[in-house]
């Protein structure tokens, strides 16, 4: 499979690749379990709904490199711990007369830092120079969608 070949190419044999049923994400990286998860149906639907002019394999390559970016992000564990502390503060103190806007903004900023950093790492790794225009288009669209998703998620805390 294409994704396994990419992991092998970069000597990332410690990363597990698995299919999962959650249609929320095309692909996602779980830092605790060192796993890149993907949903084939969602991945294909997302590809069909885009107008990047890529083959399905080229689209997968770009998305996969983004997830590898998360896997190689040395600050991810620390940032995820900080997010968890802010989320716990909000959840455990609901109704305490504080809207926790500072903590909410920190969570948004931290998640966006993770997304931006993953795209930077992906850009440094991707060897398919012919895909760079589409890479940047997908990156920009992804960052915009990620921010909306994160703001919505944080708003529900």
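Sequence proposed for the structure above (157 residues):
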């Amino acid at each position: 499979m294409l994704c396994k070949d990419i992991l092998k190419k970069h000597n990332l044999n410690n990363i597990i690749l698995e299919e999962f049923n959650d249609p929320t994400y095309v692909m996602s990286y779980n830092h605790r379990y060192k796993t890149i998860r993907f949903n084939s149906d969602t991945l294909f639907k997302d590809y069909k709904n885009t107008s990047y002019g890529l083959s399905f394999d080229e689209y997968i390559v770009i998305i996969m490199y983004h997830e590898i970016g998360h896997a190689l992000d040395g600050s991810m564990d620390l940032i995820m711990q900080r997010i968890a502390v802010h989320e716990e503060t909000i959840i455990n103190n609901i109704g305490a007369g504080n809207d926790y806007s500072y903590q909410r903004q920190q969570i948004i900023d931290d998640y966006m830092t993770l997304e931006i950093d993953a795209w930077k790492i992906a850009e440094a790794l991707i060897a398919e120079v012919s895909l760079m225009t589409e890479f940047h288009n997908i990156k920009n669209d992804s960052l915009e969608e990620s921010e909306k998703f994160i703001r919505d998620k944080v708003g529900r805390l």
